């Protein structure tokens, strides 16, 4: 009989300073952060290293603001032996779509303050990536229909009738495809976003990351929703094992130098 090694509870504001060491030794080591927080030399030129102090100051503020945002949920994992929950071992931030917020959360609770909790990267995602992954590609059904129904000759009346008939059939088929596509993208727009999942390096590979991820996915599944994330370089196989599938890339435009950026959905 197996015993439970870890337990998870909702994060508290007092947890946030304790989470930064986990963040800086895991996620902040990704190449993304050399793009976002480059360490400048004495001449003001950016180098290949992260400005840790600038990053810590910025992310501490962002985490505190997220805590008061109605859309964000912080979960923190501890050892079962840590009865006072003094030493966090891992944490996750999930962002809920507006449709999943209760009236109390939106208007009556302290969370209704809803301060800005975005980062430079999240603003890039909102501006450059989300329009593409949440909006189905536009199609010109009329043009598609005409391309299949235009007569080639006045002398081929019977064949023309067949072509027109096929065009109408194709039009209906395209309409059904468009409806299914819109339904799929509507589900994506209501998906939960895994913003952050970080585990102490010494505990990576022990199952703690999977344990914390499944904890968050249970809330997603209970609401019948989808989930998505943008993966750092090298962690895509971990998320594939949990049912996520790559649907696009976020390392485009100003982020084209980033080696990570797989956009992954669990639909």
From TrEMBL:
Residues 134-182 are annotated as: Disordered. GO terms for cellular component: ribosome. The keyword Ribonucleoprotein applies. Residues 138-153 have a biased composition (Low complexity). Pfam families: Acetyltransf_7 (PF13508). Residues 171-182 have a biased composition (Basic and acidic residues). Residues 132-267 form the N-acetyltransferase domain. SUPFAM superfamilies: Acyl-CoA N-acyltransferases (Nat) (SSF55729). The keyword Chaperone does not apply. InterPro entries: Acyl_CoA_acyltransferase, GNAT_dom, Trichothecene_AcTrans. Keywords: Ribonucleoprotein, Ribosomal protein. One of its GO terms (molecular function) is acyltransferase activity, transferring groups other than amino-acyl groups. This is Ribosomal protein S18 acetylase RimI.
């Amino acid at each position: 009989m197996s015993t439970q090694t870890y337990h998870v509870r909702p994060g508290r504001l007092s947890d946030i300073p304790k989470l930064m060491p986990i963040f800086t030794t895991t996620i902040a080591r990704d190449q993304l952060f050399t793009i976002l927080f480059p360490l400048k030399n004495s001449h003001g030129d950016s180098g290949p290293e992260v400005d840790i102090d600038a990053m810590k100051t910025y992310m501490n503020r962002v985490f505190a603001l997220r805590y008061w945002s109605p859309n964000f949920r912080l979960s923190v994992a501890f050892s079962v032996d840590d009865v006072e929950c003094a030493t966090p071992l891992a944490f996750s931030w999930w962002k809920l779509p507006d449709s999943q917020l209760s009236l109390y959360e939106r208007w009556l609770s302290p969370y209704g303050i809803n301060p800005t909790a975005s980062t430079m990267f999240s603003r890039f995602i909102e501006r450059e990536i989300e329009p593409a992954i949440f909006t189905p590609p536009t199609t010109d059904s009329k043009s598609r229909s005409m391309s299949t129904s235009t007569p080639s000759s006045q002398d081929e009346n019977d064949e023309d009738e067949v072509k027109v008939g096929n065009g109408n059939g194709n039009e209906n088929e395209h309409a059904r495809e468009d409806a299914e596509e819109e339904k799929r993208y509507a589900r994506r727009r209501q998906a939960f976003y895994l913003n952050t999942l970080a585990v102490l390096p010494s505990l990576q590979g022990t199952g703690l990351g999977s344990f914390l991820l499944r904890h968050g996915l249970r809330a997603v599944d209970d609401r019948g929703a989808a989930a998505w994330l943008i993966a750092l370089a090298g962690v895509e196989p971990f998320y594939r094992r949990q049912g996520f599938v790559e649907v696009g890339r976020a390392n485009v435009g100003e982020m084209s130098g980033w080696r990570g950026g797989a956009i992954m959905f669990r639909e």
